[in-house]
Amino acid sequence: MRIGEIAAMVGVSTRAVRHYHHQGLLPEPQRRANGYRHYGLRDAIVLARIRRLTELGLSLDEVRDALADDGGRELREILVDLDRELAEQEQRIRDRRARLGLLIERAERGELDADSAVSPGTAELLAALNTTEPASPMAVLERELFALMDTTGGEQRDQALAVVLPAIEDPALRARGHELQRRLDELAEAAPDDPRVAPLAEELADSIPAEVSALIGDDDADNSFSTALFDSVGPARAEVLRRAIRLLAQRPRDEGDLR
Description:
Helix content is 71%, strand content 0%. It contains 13 helices and no strands. It has helices at 3-10, 14-22, 41-56, 60-68, 73-108, 120-130, 137-152, 155-168, 171-185, 197-207, 210-213, 224-233, 235-258. It is elongated. The N and C termini lie far apart (85 Å).
């Protein structure tokens, strides 16, 4: 058989056959006097094995190991690993479909927005924040920052959510948050040396749970993300946030000094 004939019989492309030769999976057959490769029955058997194994999802390196293992022990281990990987993929697909189902339901209720495709915990938080009034500029920014943290926060996101979600349910804490947002809104056009800045920074820092402030480092008021945040809110509000972050960064040390 020529290469086109064996490829058609097994159901692969001639390019695949040549690639298997190059990878050492299929031995190069003898060539006839006219220079054409001549494939026999054994070549077809091996090529069929390669096709079956690759269709199961084995990589070419794994196929090579499986073909070299006459006892089948290596192949069994490969298949067990592959089965576990597929089970994990299935679970991820089920999780994604569950999230898509919730988003479709929200879309049908007219509740879908650009930040809807966040993790379940963040979605719960944003839903709670969306029920708060008034929807001030700082409240909108707060929700946008939580949505951003959902993508960039990693482990810190989960730690913060574990603290913030229960706090949102406390009416007193929600009222305090509304008041702080209102006072921040009032500083939209103010200068950074406005006398309202310092006391508001202290109150804002005091409103942050210790578990959240423990995630803030000494340089968080000066890193590139903080700089971008400060640039987006105006001079006075930026100064409030800068001072509050520095107070929060000092809090663990201050508490440690008291012990």
